[in-house]
Design brief:
Blueprint lengths: L27 H25 L5 H8 L19 H11 L6 E5 L5 H10 L2 E6 L2 H14 L5 E5 L12 E4 L3 H12 L6 E5 L10 E5 L9 E7 L31 H11 L6 E5 L5 H10 L2 E5 L3 H14 L5 E4 L13 E4 L3 H12 L6 E5 L10 E5 L9 E7 L8
Parallel strand pairs: 1-2, 1-4, 2-3, 4-5, 8-9, 8-11, 9-10, 11-12
Antiparallel strand pairs: 5-7, 6-7, 12-14, 13-14
Helix pairs in contact: 1-2, 3-4, 7-8, 8-9
Length: 411
């Protein structure tokens, strides 16, 4: 038997904790120590009895009874990175595994996604992993979690798999490996879900993009992408047409971006610091968020309901190296809680600005509201900056700024 040393790779979520009432995860190095202790003790006792009976000499006993050498510990691959527990939970929540459905995790690592699928949803789940050490570790974890009747780990090359049975496929690989998997993913049954942690399927338009800040590392933002089959190809090969390779299609109909000089002036007026928080309502391609994070070190949160623009802005934040400071929420901006905002930026319409007034009225004193081109109807004007028209445009750019608390014109 080959003994596996987990090299400090305990699954962080302890499955025998009082909170979870989950069976204990056996640490592989403990197994090795137990085996070695028992082997040595048995050898000494049997050898002593044989020598006492005059059957053998100690030297002969040594030569006859030597155990085969224990294999060297099999280390976990140095490039193995596990998905944080909070991200696992969100991925499974999005998967919404139903009775009778099956989940495949491709590159299943230590088995945590398939184990949690069994524990939380009672679903059938299969992990596919090629590395010997991770296969052994994940199988031990399945046993420790007591889900062996629902969950199994297969040692297999993921690029040889038939995914026809899968209702959900989960991934935490790389964009290049995701690209290699595309022919298999395209053959999945209609309605099946593909859920990837941090890496896109190149040229495929996601249906949902969710960002998660794990409690174990709240300074890091993880992105979860969801697609359903049949996939929507951004290059016009699927249900939706597009134009940007590797990203969802370009700007949504009706989307107009704020020119970069105007963005710079809006952020100058905002007077942000690294301890402050900016909300951009209708954040589009993320240019205000990225500028606030890159130039001022401010945490920047966008509200945007168009999944193509969400994907584009997240991609641009990653390119700018500010993904830890930029969040994009795929929620209705009229549901945004602005109570902790230091700055709110807008480029909407007079009607939408009017609808936002009740949320803006309760912002904390000293918070700034900055709107490109449109005033807040019914609110007393405070600051107005005019900038020359952009090339190809006839109208000058107007930037309005208010400092909370806002005052109504009829007050």
């Amino acid at each position: 038997m080959r003994h596996i040393v987990a090299m400090a790779m305990r699954v962080p979520r302890c499955w025998n904790s009082p909170e979870n009432s989950r069976p204990s995860l056996i640490h592989q190095s403990d197994q090795v120590m137990v085996h070695v202790t028992m082997t040595i003790s048995k050898k000494i006792l049997v050898g002593a009895a044989a020598i006492a009976a005059g059957l053998v000499t100690w030297g002969l006993w040594e030569s006859l009874s030597s155990d085969p050498p224990i294999d060297e510990p099999m280390p976990i691959p140095s490039d193995f990175v596990s998905t944080p527990d909070d991200v696992v939970d969100r991925m499974l929540e999005l998967a919404n595994l139903q009775p009778g459905q099956v989940l495949y995790d491709l590159g299943s690592g230590d088995g945590r996604i398939v184990i949690e699928a069994g524990l939380q949803y009672g679903g059938r789940a299969i992990g596919f992993e090629l590395d010997d050490a991770l296969v052994a570790l994940s199988r031990a974890n399945v046993d420790a979690a007591g889900v062996g009747d629902m969950v199994r780990i297969d040692q297999a090359d993921i690029f040889t798999l038939d995914l026809a049975e899968a209702d959900v496929v989960t991934l935490y690989l790389s964009e290049a490996l995701n690209a290699q998997l595309l022919p298999q993913l395209r053959e999945m049954k209609p309605g099946a879900l593909i859920i990837s942690h941090d890496f896109v399927l190149p040229d495929q338009v996601p249906e949902k993009i969710i960002q998660v800040k794990p409690r174990s590392d709240p300074d890091t933002v993880h992105t979860v992408y969801v697609w359903s089959v049949p996939l929507a190809d951004a290059r016009g090969l699927g249900p939706q047409n597009g134009q940007t390779a590797g990203l969802p299609p370009g700007p949504a109909i009706g989307f107009a971006s704020t020119p970069m000089p105007v963005v710079a002036e809006m952020l100058r007026l905002a007077n942000l610091s690294a301890e402050q928080k900016l909300y951009d309502l209708g954040s589009g391609d993320g240019r205000i968020l990225i500028g606030a994070a890159r130039d001022y070190g401010a945490l920047s949160i966008g509200y945007e309901i168009d999944p193509q623009l969400i994907a584009l802005s997240i991609h641009k934040a990653q390119e700018a190296g500010v993904q830890s400071l930029v969040q994009v929420r795929g929620d209705d901006l009229f549901s945004a809680d602005l109570s902790d905002a230091d700055v709110v930026t807008l480029y909407l319409s007079p009607a939408m600005n009017r609808k936002l007034v009740p949320q803006l009225m309760v912002m904390r004193p000293g918070a700034r509201i900055i709107s490109h081109q449109y005033a807040l109807p019914g609110i007393r004007q405070q600051t107005l900056v005019t900038m020359p028209a952009s090339p190809g445009s006839r109208a000058d750019h107007k930037i309005y700024m208010w400092v909370a608390p806002l005052e109504r014109e009829d007050d």
